[in-house]
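Retro notes (design track)

What went well: tokenization of the new backbones is finally stable.
What didn't: we kept losing track of which sequence belonged to which structure.
Fix going forward: every design gets posted as structure first, then sequence, in one message. First example under the new rule, 398 residues:
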């Protein structure tokens, strides 16, 4: 049965990217009803979207319509999914507080289909606590929020706030409209984030991991029907809806948590940036510096548990284990060593020095190596797409 997507376009500079999205949706035989705020029409004319969608573009509550007796009600009843993109700070605020003062905001209130919100704005606006609170409120109402990309923005600043590519938005739309449930009945545990090792009550040592890759895996697994346990170290990310969240601090605590849940799991994926060392003797009080500029502090470090190796010792025959090898040199050679020593079914290797790969990026460039020696390099992808590729590989083993 054909699906219908309502595309609500608000007034941001990224409006031009939505023309490609409409074209991609039509190529997949998805019907598109485009609704534009008055501000959106200042960036791209409605005629562009009418030509691409093949349907009337709605811009006003007072617009005569040949298709619907009452526009906002008729449109809302026809939708299988409502997408708001680019979602400006202003329109997110209107949605969060139930305002209905134009065509698109009235459709939002009349709509009963799933809603996907794709924020795009200046970085300072996006991270503003008021905007973040409004986004959290929309999530609490059950709306899906697609995280913006990070990079150079049209306003000249750099940071979070970029509209994802048309292909990325299309993938999210397809996931909502045609959800894969190929992991239904399976329990998956993934660790994510970075571990932290205390120096004293104030300071700690850590690494550059942000947790995004592991959180993408958790989100993808949930959407594909799995029961997911997310063991997370330090991160700024919100956990995906539907996961069983276990928050930890250091490597030893993370290892203990994963050993506790291991027997319950069909699949284990180690995506966390686990520190290799901890402080031998943690100070009970804050360490003070002296007035001498030549003062030195020597910290004695000792090893932390190798979590996947510990899990490998107890691995039952049916369990699938996947690891990551974030390397800076001899990537494939080092990854193969980890694959064997940790008793993994396959390992995901990446060179974190490459542009667009590794920590604190929205993309990754990885190579999958299985225990039979097969090497499968993947092109540069969003971390959401990498998560999907990893779970596709898991399914082959299931």
């Amino acid at each position: 049965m054909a699906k219908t997507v309502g595309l609500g376009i608000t007034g941001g500079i990224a409006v031009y990217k939505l023309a490609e999205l409409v074209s991609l949706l039509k190529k997949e035989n998805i019907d598109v009803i485009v609704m534009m705020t008055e501000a959106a029409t200042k960036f791209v004319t409605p005629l562009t979207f009418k030509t691409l969608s093949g349907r009337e573009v709605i811009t006003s509550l007072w617009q005569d319509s040949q298709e619907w007796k009452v526009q906002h009600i008729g449109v809302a009843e026809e939708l299988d999914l409502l997408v708001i993109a680019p979602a400006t700070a202003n329109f997110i605020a209107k949605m969060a507080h139930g305002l209905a003062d134009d065509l698109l905001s009235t459709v939002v209130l009349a709509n009963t289909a799933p809603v996907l919100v794709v924020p795009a704005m200046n970085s300072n606006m996006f991270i503003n606590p008021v905007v973040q609170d409004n986004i959290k409120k929309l999530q609490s109402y059950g709306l899906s929020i697609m995280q913006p990309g990070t990079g150079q923005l049209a306003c000249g600043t750099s940071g979070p706030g970029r509209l994802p590519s048309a292909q990325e938005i299309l993938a999210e739309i397809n996931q909502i409209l045609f959800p894969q449930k190929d992991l239904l009945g399976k329990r998956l545990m993934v660790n994510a984030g970075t571990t932290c090792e205390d120096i004293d009550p104030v300071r700690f040592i850590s690494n550059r991991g942000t947790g995004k890759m592991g959180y993408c895996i958790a989100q993808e697994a949930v959407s594909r029907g799995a029961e997911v346990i997310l063991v997370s170290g330090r991160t700024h990310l919100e956990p995906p809806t539907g996961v069983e969240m276990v928050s930890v601090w250091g490597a030893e605590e993370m290892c203990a948590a994963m050993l506790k849940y291991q027997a319950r799991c069909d699949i284990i994926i180690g995506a966390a940036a686990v520190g290799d060392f901890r402080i031998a003797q943690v100070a009970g009080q804050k360490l003070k510096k002296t007035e001498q500029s030549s003062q030195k502090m020597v910290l004695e470090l000792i090893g932390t548990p190798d979590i996947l190796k510990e899990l490998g010792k107890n691995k039952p025959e049916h369990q699938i284990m996947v690891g990551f090898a974030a390397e800076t040199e001899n990537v494939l050679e080092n990854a193969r060593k980890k694959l064997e020593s940790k008793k993994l079914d396959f390992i995901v290797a990446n060179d974190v020095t490459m542009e667009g790969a590794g920590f604190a990026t929205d993309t990754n460039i990885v190579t999958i190596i299985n225990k039979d020696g097969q090497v499968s390099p993947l092109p540069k992808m969003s971390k959401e797409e990498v998560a999907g590729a990893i779970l596709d590989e898991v399914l082959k083993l299931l």
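Added context from the reviewer: Residues 4-177 form a domain with the Rossmann fold fold (CATH 3.40.50.1950).
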